[in-house]
UniProtKB/TrEMBL annotation, chain A:
Superkingdom of the organism of origin: Bacteria
TM spans (from-to): none
Record-linked Pfam families: SBP_bac_5 (PF00496)
Gene3D superfamilies: Dipeptide-binding Protein, Domain 1 (3.90.76.10), Dipeptide-binding Protein, Domain 3 (3.10.105.10), Periplasmic binding protein-like II (3.40.190.10)
Protein known as: ABC transporter family substrate-binding protein
Signal peptide: 1-26
UniProt keywords, alphabetically: Signal
Domain Solute-binding protein family, chain residue ranges per copy: 97-494
TrEMBL record, chain B:
Transmembrane segments: 9-29, 109-130, 142-163, 175-197, 204-222, 234-255, 262-283, 289-310, 317-335, 375-394, 437-461, 481-505
Name of the protein this chain belongs to: ABC transporter permease
Every ABC transmembrane type-1 domain range: 103-498
Family of this protein: Belongs to the binding-protein-dependent transport system permease family.
InterPro entries registered for this protein in UniProt: MetI-like, MetI-like_sf
A Pfam family reported for this protein in Swiss-Prot or TrEMBL: BPD_transp_1
Record has Transmembrane helix as a keyword: yes
Location in or out of the cell: Cell membrane
Topology relative to the membrane: Multi-pass membrane protein
Organism: Cellulomonas alba
TrEMBL record, chain C:
Source organism of this protein record: Cellulomonas alba
Name listed for the protein in its UniProt record: ABC transporter permease
Ranges for domain ABC transmembrane type-1: 144-335
Keywords recorded for this protein, A-Z: Cell membrane, Membrane, Transmembrane, Transmembrane helix, Transport
The family this protein is said to belong to: Belongs to the binding-protein-dependent transport system permease family.
Region (Disordered): 1-20
Membrane topology: Multi-pass membrane protein
Subcellular location(s) of the protein: Cell membrane
Protein's UniProt keywords contain Metal-binding: no
Length: 589, 512, 351
């Protein structure tokens, strides 16, 4: 029987060989690739780490940062924020002028040609709906436990808009005027976006859309809560995508106002196509596809040509070296982002850093340059020590302000002897124990604390490295931490930093309090000309540094990586991300 | 039987209820659901925190939230109940549609991998059992243990690098140095020699033949540019079909004169099938799943019919083998068509046909074969990753169970009464060895669903694993519970099915 | 607590609603998955061993030591454990390798590994350095140490709980058994990766590998509990247990002194295999972001952190991976050898 079995296997082998040999009858089929009319590819694939989660990214439960990546191409606003944070008027969309400073009054006019991609003009109803949604003036009647009352519209932010009176006008007007009840520093960037198609919301709420949505305009003007509730319900949830984007809602509900419009989605991949109704500069590539790829898998996907570009949300030096190892096929643009790393310290009463000399000693032993060299430079070699809080090196006013803040340069180099001396003067018992918190799961922060510990322990501190999975809750509990390293993301706005620095501000975790700083902020939030804020902020910076509010480390380095077939990507540190100019990108074949 | 099933279902209901409570509480306390918002310092921080608090009912204590979730599930169970959503996620989106799409995509991944792993696992398991203590047996044992010891995501990264990126680079310009050709031929020769074994003389012959065949085949394929526009063509289908028909007949019926008729009808089925495939060519461009199944049905029908007509006194057996041949012809047709579709996919993917991430190429816009080729190529890497693990356990289990059976008295009896080895192995041993395996697969399947979490993450597959993982990361219990509801019910149901199947297959067991 | 229902353990009965066939299969898998005696070992190991009802520790040891693959695994594991614990020391006890895994140093030789096999020399940084210049040998050793601790903890905690629950359920039967086995069913319905991820995420707040090991151990006892219960169900009907009971030996003593020693084989084998599974589980959890958190380290966490380094600095990716594979493989072979030593079935004569 063994012979028989062997015979079988030999037969199988022979058959296998035959099968393989049989494969060779290939007829040389020619690749009938449809040659495109020009030398550019018709699709660009952009890698994103998380699917966009809604068409209306202005709702409070819109959680994906990548909504902005899509909105850059499909939505529009009166201004465009540039990579250096400056504001540029977008005359394609419309024009605006400041009519008066007191009260702050701005007149906006939509372009005559401006239409949604379904052909409906962009006009007064869209502006009025924006006001209705963001002004927070439509109480829903439902009280939360803390007594606050939710608004009908679940808006992500009411900042600025809640200081604006209801714009006057009638359905079909191409212009509208915003009157502020009190001056608002960031008025200009307020209208960089935020308009959604009012005619869709009206129709879905069962209103007539005749006469440029007269019904909706009247309902808002008359504060008709019953009608507005239906509109708000759709505004809040009707535009949401399914989780992980298996498909898009009916694209008729998703008109675009930018160079691209929504086409389809499947398996977390969103396809945009050129908006044929767009009146401004048209997009250069036929299709832009957003592919969702796990952050760690991006480089291999780029290498394999599945994506053409991506912005890593947490670039590491290994990622950068892996990208550069790919050679000429991949280009990497680097720069300093708008978010920055800093060491916060508990300066409040009873805090370990209540004494200014201890703070100074701490600042002197933190190896800032070393941290920059180890953690920022491997990614962006132009990285430098961050010496200001409210301005970052990528912003245009950084150098101007820095020149007016002499105290900002006092802690550039490590001075162990000086730190020891200061601790001695403060009369604290050494080794001085400091519980140093950082986000658990962050190898980067853990490494940084290790480096700080190596240096500061020599000066008489005893740094206890304390990873914390919920570090931001801990920070609000004085006594549970002494120092913490984490990042803030700068928004490029003038007024948004207030709550970090003023007495009892929500994110003033170190319990810092200085009346001069408080007063300066009161003035800053009310300037109506951005340039007026610069000298005020310079004064505030000087105060922060002489008091040693905290120790800033560096602006986090940022990266955008793309296939060298692609032309056009520029590193953009703002929250709008790299696709801010994706309409101008081209990809060679 | 009915009593048994009812009883089991009632107990299972309470078990699932208890485990959902456990899971819900664990997820809810695992972290602070507001973490990402606390970190955020842009405008509207408070509004966003308020919205999240409302969406997740954070003002309600955890047991209360569990009851709310139970109510949401209840709406799906109560007949005529509407608003079946399985709850809302933290962005207030219903979970049910998310679950539906996720299940579809995960099943596609898991079923493909399980079926392949099962096929390969059973075959190697049986061969290793038959050739116990051979080099091949030791080799496979070692490989299986190695597979048990591999971290999935570590291997996945390697697969991406070497199977996707490097292979794609090679496919762009498929050439091979003679040294590489020789090396591959030598390795193939050694492998075959080890697999087939036997006397040293046999081994040398096998080695020589296999090395030569590999070398020639590769050489011909390379010189004819087969790798850029692959196909098997009608001749290929005919040749492979006839060879396979021969093998099936040899395996299932044997080549004894008594069943010689089966061999002829089977080969006839292959030839007729090839003719049918040629005739069906006009259908190929506009094919969809319906026409595909119709064609498959016709091919199988041809096999059965030839068996019945020409089978004579073994017509039942001939029809069965004919059906298998029909299936083989269908597979060959599909392979032929998909190979023909390959250049299109190659061009659509910018010359990089094997992807590292995702489930399909967006906007491919191809016909039935082209889209399916694309989907199949997307399945290559994740399937390999899942297979490595499943294959290891299936091959070990098959081997063990086969050895168990081969030591049974009835096998010895069968041999003693002079049955030939093929009959002993195929009819007496193999079938009985598969009984425990069938139940193992059922038992294992729910576990595989859970295990896909890692694989899906690595390969950017938006299925149940992603639902679970993002849900847990966001401390968003409802999507996690949806994932869990499916796996828990699958566990319970498959356990029940395993018991019933066992009682059905093994008459010694009675369900009371 | 009637004594006449002992046979039910072998057949599907209404006493055991969920875990009937599944349980049997599990037990069988446990026995069979690496199958017959002496795979990779000697062929006639048991030929000269009398088929005793209960193998004495000595014969088991002899069988185990003849198992070549298991011995190979044992040697590799012993080597790794000694290397890992002696090099960077255990807790406060220093080891022979004097680099701290936490301290960044200037890059030497571009961070490349300095390990040389022939002539053998470790050099300054045998496994190279990571992105901030930490000695990667020290990191991998520390990580491996932590992973091994997790593995042992999981193996120990899981086996202890599983044994106790299985023993108590199997011995006392009645409502005790129902409650315990239904509890087992509850935990078993949750996929291991899922429940491990959830408890690991909770363990992160407690810090350290000890919490992680303990927590994972708390959810990985179910398989063993069922197996031990099965063993107890049949053993409790044996004469020696009746004898002990009739002379008034207390239940606790019967369980631990009379029955348990007879099930030690399955328990040891299961604990061993649980350890190799735990190493892999830990790495999967690290990958999903639910594992050990910095500044602690583990092999899984190292691979995850340096996965992007596979191109430019492959040693950061390969070393921890190879250690995981080596440890898991060694433990698997040891488990295989132990199983064969305890349960010498399926000695198939060569046909």
């Amino acid at each position: 029987m063994t012979i028989r079995r062997k015979g079988l296997t030999v037969a199988a082998l022979a058959a296998g060989a035959l099968v393989l040999a049989g494969c060779g009858t290939a007829g040389g089929k020619t690749n009938s690739s449809a040659s495109p009319s020009n030398n550019f590819a018709d699709t660009i694939n952009i890698g994103i780490e998380q699917t966009p989660d809604t068409y209306n990214s202005n709702t409070a439960d819109a959680n994906s940062v990548y909504n902005a990546y899509v909105d850059n191409l499909t939505q529009n606003g009166f201004v465009k924020i540039q990579p250096d944070g400056s504001i540029k008027a977008n005359t394609d969309y419309g024009t605006y002028e400041k009519v008066s400073d007191n009260p702050l009054t701005v007149k906006y006019t939509f372009s005559d040609k401006a239409v949604w991609s379904d052909g409906t003009p962009i006009d007064f109803d869209d502006a009025l709906l924006a006001w209705a949604a963001y002004s927070g003036t439509h109480p829903s009647g439902q009280k939360a436990e803390d007594g606050s009352e939710a608004d009908l519209f679940n808006a992500a932010s009411t900042n600025g808009w809640n200081q604006i009176k209801m714009p006057e006008g009638k359905a079909g007007d191409k212009s509208f005027t915003l009157v502020y009840t009190k001056p608002y520093a960031d008025w200009e960037s307020l209208l960089s976006g935020g308009f959604v198609p009012a005619h869709i919301a009206a129709k879905q709420a069962g209103l007539s859309t005749d006469n440029n949505d007269e019904a909706l305009v009247t309902a808002i003007q008359n504060n008709d809560t019953a009608t507005l509730k239906k509109v708000a319900d759709f505004w809040n949830s009707g535009w949401k995508y399914q989780a992980n984007l298996p498909s898009l809602p009916d694209v008729a509900l998703l008109p675009a106002a930018g160079p691209y419009k929504y086409d389809n989605a499947s398996n977390g991949t969103l396809t945009l196509v050129k908006n044929d109704k767009y009146w401004g500069t048209a997009g250069k590539t036929q299709k832009i596809v957003f592919k969702t790829v796990n952050a760690d898998e991006m480089v291999q996907a780029l290498q394999n040509g599945e994506i053409d570009q991506f912005d890593p949300s947490n670039p590491t030096s290994d990622m950068v070296s892996q990208l550069s190892a790919l050679g000429a096929s991949v280009k990497v643009e680097k720069g300093e982002s708008l978010s920055f790393s800093h060491v916060d310290i508990d300066t409040g009463k009873g805090g370990k850093f209540e004494d200014q000399r201890v703070r100074q000693a701490f600042a002197k032993c933190i190896p800032r340059q070393d941290l920059v060299d180890k953690f920022a430079k491997p990614i962006f070699d132009g990285a430098q020590i961050l010496r200001l809080h409210e301005y970052l090196p990528s912003q245009k006013d950084y150098e101007t302000v820095l020149a007016q803040v002499p105290s900002a340069k006092l802690y550039d180099t490590v001075d162990i002897a000086g730190a020891k001396q200061l601790l001695q003067q403060a009369g604290v018992k050494t080794p001085y124990k400091v519980t140093f918190k950082f986000a658990g799961q962050s190898q980067l922060r853990a490494n940084q604390v290790a480096l700080i510990k190596a240096s500061c322990d020599q000066a008489g501190f005893n740094i206890v490295s304390a990873p914390d999975d919920d570090v931001f809750t801990t920070l609000t509990q004085p006594g549970k931490w002494d120092a913490a390293v984490f990042g803030w993301s700068g928004s490029g706005l003038i007024a948004s930093g207030q709550s970090i620095y003023v007495t009892k501000g929500a994110q003033n975790y170190g319990r810092y309090s200085n009346t001069k700083v408080d007063q300066l902020w009161d003035q800053i939030v009310q300037v109506t000309n951005p340039d007026d804020a610069v000298p005020l902020k310079a004064q505030m910076e000087e105060q922060l540094w002489s008091d040693l509010y905290n120790i800033t480390l560096y602006a986090n380095p940022g990266v955008t990586a793309y296939s060298s077939k692609l032309t056009g990507p520029v590193y953009n540190p703002t929250q709008y991300g790299s696709t801010w100019n994706a309409a101008t990108w081209t990809k060679s074949l | 039987m009915t009593v048994f099933v009812t009883r089991r279902l009632i107990v299972s209901f309470f078990i699932v209820l208890a485990s959902t409570a456990l899971m819900y509480v664990l997820v809810a306390v695992s972290d602070n659901p507001l973490k990402d918002l606390l970190e955020y310092n842009g405008p509207g921080r408070a509004d966003r925190i308020a919205a999240r608090t409302r969406a997740l009912h954070l003002d309600v204590p955890i047991p209360g939230r569990y009851v709310l979730w139970l109510q949401d599930v209840g709406r799906c169970v109560v007949p005529g109940g509407h608003d079946c959503t399985l709850g809302l996620d933290r962005s207030s989106r219903p979970v049910l549609p998310q679950l539906q799409t996720a299940i579809g995509s995960t099943l596609r991944l898991v079923v493909a991998a399980t079926v392949l792993a099962l096929l390969i696992g059973i075959v190697t398991g049986i061969v290793t059992a038959l050739r116990q203590y051979s080099t091949f047996d030791y080799g496979i044992t070692f490989v299986a243990f190695l597979c048990f010891s591999l971290p999935v995501f570590w291997v996945s990264t390697l697969l991406k690098q070497y199977i996707a990126i490097d292979l794609n680079n090679w496919l762009a310009n498929p050439t091979m140095s003679y040294a590489a050709l020789f090396a591959i031929a030598l390795i193939a020769g050694v492998l075959w020699a080890v697999v087939i074994g036997g006397q040293w003389r046999t081994r040398w012959i096998v080695f020589g033949v296999a090395a030569l065949a590999t070398f020639t085949t590769l050489f011909v394929l390379l010189t004819t540019d087969w790798f850029t526009s692959p196909s098997i063509g009608v001749v290929g289908i005919l040749v492979i079909g006839v060879v396979m028909a021969f093998l099936w007949a040899a395996l299932f019926a044997g080549l004894r004169p008594r069943t010689r008729r089966v061999l002829w009808t089977s080969i006839a089925a292959a030839v007729l099938g090839t003719i049918a495939i040629v005739l069906a060519q006009p259908l190929m461009d506009g094919m969809n799943w319906l026409t595909f199944f119709l064609v498959a049905l016709v091919l199988i029908g041809i096999g059965v019919a030839t068996g019945l007509v020409g089978g004579g006194y073994v017509k039942r057996l001939a029809a069965q083998v004919g059906a298998v041949t029909g299936v083989t012809m269908t597979v060959l047709m599909a392979i032929d068509q998909m190979l023909a579709a390959y250049p299109f996919v190659y061009q659509q993917t910018g010359g990089r046909p094997i992807p590292t991430t995702g489930a399909s190429t967006p906007n491919l816009d191809g016909n039935f074969w082209q889209t399916n080729t694309d989907v199949a190529l997307h399945l290559v890497l994740p399937t390999l990753a899942i297979m490595l693990i499943s294959f290891a356990s299936y091959t070990r289990y098959t081997r063990a169970s086969m050895l168990d059976v081969l030591n049974q008295d009835y096998v010895r009896t069968a041999r003693a009464k002079g049955l030939n080895e093929r009959t002993v192995l195929v009819r007496h041993s193999f079938r009985n060895a598969l009984i425990p395996l069938a139940t193992l697969v059922a038992f294992d399947f729910a576990g595989v669903l859970g295990g896909a979490v890692v694989t899906e993450t690595v390969f950017g597959w938006s299925g149940m694993g992603l639902l679970f993982q993002t849900g847990l990361k966001n401390v968003d219990p409802n999507p996690v519970m949806a994932f869990f509801l499916v796996t828990a019910i699958a566990t319970v149901v498959f356990n029940l099915l395993a018991d019933i199947a066992y009682a059905y297959l093994d008459p010694r067991i009675r369900l009371s | 607590m009637s004594t006449d229902d002992g046979l039910r353990s072998e057949s599907v009965s209404e006493e055991t609603p969920l875990p009937v066939e599944s349980e049997r299969i599990e037990a069988q898998m446990h026995r069979l998955i690496s199958a017959d005696t002496d795979v990779l070992g000697v062929e006639t190991a048991s030929a000269d061993i009398p088929v005793a009802a209960r193998s004495s520790a000595r014969t088991v040891m002899m069988r185990f030591f003849r198992h070549k693959a298991a011995m190979g695994g044992l040697i590799v594991l012993a080597f790794i454990v000694i290397l890992v614990f002696s090099s960077v020391g255990i807790g406060p006890i220093p080891g022979w390798w004097h680099q701290d895994y936490r301290v960044p140093q200037p890059l030497y030789n571009g961070g490349h590994p300095t390990l040389q096999l022939w002539p053998f020399s470790l050099g300054k940084h045998p496994f190279g350095q990571d992105d901030i210049g930490r000695d990667y040998f020290a990191l991998v050793m520390t990580g491996a140490q932590q992973s091994i601790i997790i593995a042992f903890l999981v193996g120990f905690v899981g086996s202890a709980i599983g044994t106790i629950i299985g023993a108590v359920a199997g011995y006392f039967r009645g409502w005790t058994e129902s409650v315990l086995m239904r509890l087992t069913d509850v935990v078993i319905t949750i996929p291991l990766v899922a429940i491990a991820a959830v408890v690991a995420k909770i363990a992160q707040d407690w810090g350290g590998v000890w919490a992680l090991g303990l927590f994972i151990g708390l959810v990985t006892w179910t398989g063993l509990a069922r197996i031990v219960r099965g063993e107890f169900l049949s053993l409790r009907e044996k004469e020696f247990v009746d004898a002990a009971r009739s002379i008034g030996v207390p239940s606790g003593r019967i369980i631990f002194r009379h029955i348990l020693p007879n099930t030690v084989g399955v328990i040891i084998v299961s604990a061993t295999l649980a350890m190799s599974a735990a190493i892999l589980l830990e790495s999967a959890l690290s990958f999903l972001g639910f594992g050990v958190q910095p500044p602690n380290t583990s092999l899984g966490q190292l691979i995850e952190s340096y996965r992007a380094a596979m191109g430019p600095r492959p040693w950061l990716f390969w070393w921890p991976g190879l250690f995981i594979v080596a440890i898991a493989l060694a433990i698997n072979f040891i488990g295989d050898g132990l199983r064969d030593a305890f349960d010498p079935r399926q000695n198939r004569q060569k046909a």
